[in-house]
Amino acid sequence: MRQRFVVVLATGFYAGCIPFASGTFGTVAAVPLCYLLTMLGPLEGALFIAAFTGFAVWVSGEAEKIFGKKDSGLIVIDEMAGFLVTMFLIPWNVKTLVTGFLLFRFMDIAKPFPIRRLESTLPGGWGVVGDDVLAGIYANAVLRVVMKLFWS
Hints:
- This protein is an all-alpha fold.
- 74% of the residues lie in helices and 0% in strands.
- It is globular, with a radius of gyration of 15 Å.
- The model has no long low-confidence stretch (mean pLDDT 94).
């Protein structure tokens, strides 16, 4: 029962089981959570992200044991945590959602320094989730620049 619980959450309700672009589908699975995030104030939002990220670290570590592979492509709860970070304190509308989504996917795939290093040096679930959280921080910062330069 516990293994099934971990698999359901680690795969983003099986979005990670889609045989192609699992990270992208995992990011889509986070959209409802991002919408809920917009209903929270800054402090509550930060606490929500911290709690979700901590939970994602645990789930990812357990999922690695179940799948028998480090940072398996089936695990997408890390993308969900990263996209929450991307959309933290960003106004909610189609333009910011799509741009934030694309920026996060770019950062997650391109892995600008030191994202790849985090992925390879942090142990267990920390390594699975840490790189996506940093990609989310980068995407959030770039999204803010885009909003300031082009949309204000």
